[in-house]
């Protein structure tokens, strides 16, 4: 295995951990919304997405039907997903050229 393989394994683990945190957070926030309890701030949810938890946040939003009707929230999530895809594409192409 070369360095790229280790980086990919670490990145996958990082994203899996943050995705689990984001997914659980969406479930907790949806439950709090239904009960009228204290909520998780949107900025904190976006931070989890930005740190790599966007797959879990996306699945949580769909599965829990949470935040999907709020266009401004989904727009920021979409921008985060596009940013992650762009960085992944750039890294993949820079590694492939050497």
Supply the key terms.
single chain, mainly alpha, elongated
Strand fraction band? under 5%
Using only CA atoms, what is the Rg?
A: 15 Å
Total count of helical runs of at least 4 residues = 3
User: What would you call the shape?
Assistant: elongated
Give the low-confidence spans.
none
- The whole-number mean of residue pLDDT values reads 94
Question: In sequence order, what are the helices and strands, one letter per element?
Answer: HHH
Number of strands: 0
Coarse structural class: mainly alpha
How would you characterize the largest beta sheet?
none
Quaternary structure of the protein: single chain
| Helix residue percentage | over 70%
Tell me the count of domains. 1
How many angstroms does the end-to-end distance come to? Answer: 16 Å
Task: Describe the overall structure.
- The chain has 98 residues and is mainly α.
- It has one domain (3-96).
- 84% of the residues lie in helices and 0% in strands.
- The protein has 3 helices and no strands.
- The protein has helices at residues 3-35, 42-64, 71-96.
- Helix 1 packs across helix 2 (42-64) and helix 2 crosses helix 3 (71-96).
- It starts with a helix and ends with a helix.
Short account of what is shown:
The chain has 98 residues and is mainly alpha-helical. It contains 3 helices and no strands. The protein has helices at 3-35, 42-64, 71-96.
Give the SSE map.
Elements: H1 3-35, H2 42-64, H3 71-96
Helix pairs in contact: 1-2, 2-3
